[in-house]
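User: Could you check the structure of this?
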Amino acid sequence: MWVSAPLFEQLVESEASVFKGCRKLLVGGDVLSPKHINKVRHICNGIEIYNGYGPTENTTFSTVFRIERDFENSIPIGSPITYSTAYVVNESNQLQPYGVIGELIVGGYGVAKGYLNQSELTSKKFVENPFVKGEVVYRTGDYVKLDQNGIIHFCGRIDNQVKIRGFRIELDLIQNCLMKCPIVKNAVVNLGNSKIIEAYFVSEQDGVREVVMEYLKHNLANYMIPAKLIQIDRIPLNTNGKVDMAVLTTMQESENCKQYDEFESAEERELLDIFRRVLQNPSFEVNDNFFEFGGDSLLTIR
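Assistant: Sure, the predicted structure tokens are below.
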């Protein structure tokens, strides 16, 4: 059975035993959550679970990894499938040594011819294989590293590394930290239009935003704390079973999770409206911390 990672997570949250009748399960299309994978392995005895990695540009799958134990931080994406190749290279297209992070480029029979009517993007992403003359490989844009057993480990998206206030930040690290929080069932971290870190999480408990924020403060550097942390009822998925980022970024905190405070005056109401406009965050409330929501000296002046 094949299922996308985001859909798999929602099914596990709803009823993990739904996979009990499945002998072999292939999960992919996005980064796998160790928390959800471990849960199914424990509930469904004897099930074989595989991490299937690969971009659509290489006909969906490029590598595979059989998950035979629990993982805490991340699950390897494995080794190339039959008739596929995978290389870990630096910016000069030289192979990286074991344990050194580089970009993953994939090749083989599944590589597409390019993007329709997008010649510039095609020439950038579909390039000649630096190791086999005449072959074409696809630059995935993923950071990975190779261990001494030849297993590839996913380390994050190149475009998921952002620079905020002079600090270079991996959004995947923040999401992984959120997922480790005991009361968090699912989470997604995104860079908003205002270049602030936005984090959305799902929990069985209502009104636990402050608890989750304290957890992040104890486990992340200050500059990695999300400026926008919102508790929602569910992670929206598109028709392909992946996270629908367009819908996600428009979602506001669930009504049963909000904790409003009465305005003491018309001036306080007006001041709150100003804070919301400056932060571009309508969910900012009376007792929220301006700096935790992305406020800084420049926004203060504004």
